[in-house]
Amino acid sequence: MMKLHVGNKNYSSWSMRPWVLLKQAGIPFEEAFVRFDAFTADSNFKRSLQGLNPAGRVPVLVDDGFAVWDTLAIAEYAAEKFPDRQLWPADARARARARSVCAEMHSGFSALRSHCPMNIEASLPHIGALVWRDQAGVRSDVQRIVSMWTELLQQNQGKLLFGPFSIADAYFAPVCMRLKTYALPVPQLVTGYVEHICALPGVKAWIDGALAEKDFRDFEEPYRLSR
């Protein structure tokens, strides 16, 4: 069975993507939890990943001794290994668009990532209001996300970005967490998508795991001194 190495569910947006993808698609895997203790070379976190990922980061998927790291590489590997799960849209143009928006998420939205780090169990609307007021980059990132999601949701006349659940929905699940935690202002169509994503069994299982951790990591908490 494949093994997926992930970090703390409350904080690790990168880990969330492939975990949710495999879980929601019904692909069997074993979870290997690598706790965030520090990110220095001598940390337990880095030592645990020696021999798996040269970059010393999660997530890492190990299949019969073969390691795949980086969320997009893991998603592509799963799509090729389990073609029956149809993790990408069947239509060629829709598939290209899904890959495009995933790649945009993979390399972009740096302001949203920086100023609104994922923190599932926290409720920080007051921080979100200040960030929204002061950070033009966050407003720009959210505007692009709203535009992207609105176009896709209207095109597909459904609750998910490309009709059936796909890699794109798993890829944007951490963004949904950020929008909720910081209560960033978005239109009703986007709010509905966020609520639908959070209710998916695979996403709900991740959220439940995050809430059960009760593992406050101060270096992941720019806005709180304690839980």
Structure description:
It is a single chain. This protein is α+β, with helices and mostly antiparallel strands and 227 residues long. The chain folds into two domains: 2-85, 3-Layer(aba) Sandwich (Glutaredoxin), CATH 3.40.30.10; 92-209, Glutathione S-transferase Yfyf (Class Pi), Chain A, domain 2, CATH 1.20.1050.10. The chain is built from ten helices and four strands. It has helices at 13-25, 44-48, 71-81, 92-107, 110-115, 125-134, 136-156, 167-181, 188-199, 201-213; strands spanning 2-6, 29-33, 60-63, 66-69. It has a four-stranded mixed beta sheet, covered by helices on one side. Helix 1 links the parallel strand 1 and strand 2 (29-33). Helix 1 (13-25) packs across helix 8 (167-181). The protein is globular and about 45 Å long. The model has no long low-confidence stretch (mean pLDDT 97).
